[in-house]
């Protein structure tokens, strides 16, 4: 064991190792060495980790993890040294904005691993499971590789014999139900309660509903809400935003409009007398936004952006234009002098503009020799 320690210290510069090794961490490394050097304690640790050492009354002072300090410098450690809990399983659940507004309960079918009942999670007949002789039950193999003069590197890989399990079962003794995997696949239906006011990306936790593994606490199932886009409303926090098109006559003379809410109610909005709605104006209706999560009787605001639709060309005959102008605010008068240039106002064509810029860039590229190009001489 001491020889192994000496070999592994070669991976680090001597000055760094001395400053660390002879510091307060020496005490913790010594405790790790105490566990590693005692076969009985090492077996206890491989099976149950630090907690098993404590319960076994090792007499050593307690610290976060004796193997954490050892692994920080040298790597290694048993298969169970880090694993106490299974991995969490994440699923996305598609929801509509109506679901988040009104609340909904959805059923989700999941596939999960459960402990095999026939072998009770052993994987085979009782007594047939033995510690892997190649990795000594650690599930990992350690290789030392020289990376330079006086420098070595430790590489830790999964054991090829037991596939990281730290144990093996004779094929003839394996459980027929789970084929030695200790778990079987099961379909389970869970009910997901989406509450009013929940948001896109919000997580709903099902504690302990993850895959089961022998000697491990099951992980959690985490449902992540994925909101679909809505054809009318956009959400911003507790508020809802929508766009409403109105005619020019409505913008100038007033209007009444209806809005269908996410809970199928009909709202009637009316512009005030004499009010002029400009293109892009924002108005709001209070308490008609999204319900607030955990306080569903309170709501945000509904924000409405107005888009004013102007008439098409020549919608009014020329002889009636003076009548319309008489009703509108007067136009600005411009005094024209002889030194001014009168030009024609035409429609803008973006595609034509892009073509013109491309042609100008091409012509500039053709002006003069390109940089970095030299003539060849015989």
Automatic annotation (TrEMBL):
Region feature Disordered, mapped onto this chain: 346-378
Protein topology in the membrane: Lipid-anchor
A GO BP entry: protein folding
Single GO term (MF): unfolded protein binding
Keyword GTP-binding (UniProt): no
Any Gene Ontology CC annotation: membrane
Coiled coil: none
Compartments (UniProt record): Membrane
SUPFAM superfamilies: Chaperone J-domain (SSF46565), DnaJ/Hsp40 cysteine-rich domain (SSF57938), HSP40/DnaJ peptide-binding domain (SSF49493)
PROSITE patterns linked to this entry: DNAJ_1, ZF_CR
Segments forming CR-type zinc fingers: 103-187
InterPro entries documented for this protein: DnaJ_C, DnaJ_domain, DnaJ_domain_CS, DNJA1/2-like, HSP40/DnaJ_pept-bd, HSP_DnaJ_Cys-rich_dom, HSP_DnaJ_Cys-rich_dom_sf, J_dom_sf
Keywords of this entry: Chaperone, Lipoprotein, Membrane, Metal-binding, Methylation, Phosphoprotein, Prenylation, Repeat, Zinc, Zinc-finger
Domain CR-type, residue spans: 103-187
The protein's name: DnaJ heat shock protein family (Hsp40) member A4
Organism of this sequence: Equus caballus (Horse)
């Amino acid at each position: 064991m001491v020889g192994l320690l000496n070999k592994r210290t070669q991976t680090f510069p001597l000055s760094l190792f001395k400053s660390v090794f002879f510091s307060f961490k020496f005490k913790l490394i010594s405790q790790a060495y105490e566990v590693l050097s005692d076969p009985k304690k090492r077996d206890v640790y491989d099976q149950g980790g630090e907690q098993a050492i404590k319960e076994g009354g090792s007499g050593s002072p307690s610290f976060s993890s004796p193997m954490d300090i050892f692994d920080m410098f040298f790597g290694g450690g048993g298969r169970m040294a880090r694993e106490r809990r299974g991995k969490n399983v994440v699923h996305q659940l598609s929801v509509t904005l109506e679901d988040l507004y009104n609340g909904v309960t959805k059923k989700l079918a999941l596939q999960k691993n459960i402990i095999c009942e026939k072998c009770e999670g052993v994987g085979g007949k009782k007594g047939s499971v033995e510690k892997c002789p190649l990795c000594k039950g650690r599930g990992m193999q350690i290789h030392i590789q020289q990376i330079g003069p006086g420098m070595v590197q430790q590489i830790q890989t999964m054991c090829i014999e037991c596939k990281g399990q730290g144990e093996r079962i004779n094929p003839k003794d394996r459980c027929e139900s789970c084929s030695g995997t200790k778990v079987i696949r099961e379909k389970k239906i869970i009910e997901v309660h989406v509450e009013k006011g929940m948001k896109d990306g919000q997580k709903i936790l099902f504690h302990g509903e993850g895959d089961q593994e022998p000697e491990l606490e099951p992980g959690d199932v985490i449902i992540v809400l994925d909101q679909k886009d809505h054809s009318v409303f956009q959400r911003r926090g507790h508020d809802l935003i929508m766009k409403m098109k109105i005619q020019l006559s409505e913008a100038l003379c007033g209007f009444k409009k209806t809005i269908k809410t996410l809970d199928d109610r009909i709202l009637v909005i009316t512009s005030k007398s004499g009010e002029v709605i400009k293109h892009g104006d924002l108005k709001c209706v209070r308490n008609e936004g999204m319900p607030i999560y955990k306080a569903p009787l309170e709501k945000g605001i509904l924000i409405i952006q107005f888009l004013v639709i102007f008439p098409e060309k020549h919608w009014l005959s020329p002889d009636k234009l003076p009548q319309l102008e008489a009703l509108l605010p007067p136009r600005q008068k411009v005094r024209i002098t002889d030194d001014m240039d009168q030009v024609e106002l035409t429609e803008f064509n973006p595609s034509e503009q892009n073509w013109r810029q491309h042609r100008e860039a091409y012509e500039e590229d053709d002006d003069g020799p390109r940089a970095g190009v030299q003539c060849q001489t015989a």
